[in-house]
Design a protein that fits this description.
By secondary structure, the protein is mainly alpha-helical. The protein folds into two domains: 10-67; 91-128, no CATH class. It has six helices and two strands. The protein has helices at 10-18, 25-39, 54-67, 91-97, 115-120, 122-128, and strands at residues 100-105, 108-114. A two-stranded antiparallel ribbon has the order 1-2. β1 (100-105) and β2 (108-114) form a beta hairpin. α1 (10-18) crosses α2 (25-39).
Length: 131
Amino acid sequence: MVRSFDSMSVLENVTVGAYNRAKTTKAAKRLAMETLEWTGLAHRADRLAVKLTPLEKRRLEVARALATKPRLLLLDEPSQGIMPKLVEQRVAECLDVADRAYVLQTGRVALSGTSAEIAADDGVRRAYLGI
């Protein structure tokens, strides 16, 4: 994950990522704000990145990556380090927004398919979805 620029505001951090796809500064800021709204950080747009909580910082890093409008974004344990005593799997939410999914076990692809196929797999449902 790309670390944030602590001396810049949340909006400035995400705007840096948005320049990758936007043709003008105005378009980059608009895309950045849209991304901040989607990630729940719009209310922190003017705050310096250094003043964010660890959870907000991680969300900022994801927002900046999303602002680049990637064709593919791979995240491995995006919540790691936020709450060391609680590792949270948000598989259901990820499958809701993804087109395809891959289940990794010890660094190898154990299962792949459309999000619907992965969500319907009994092993995935038991291991990750609590069903």
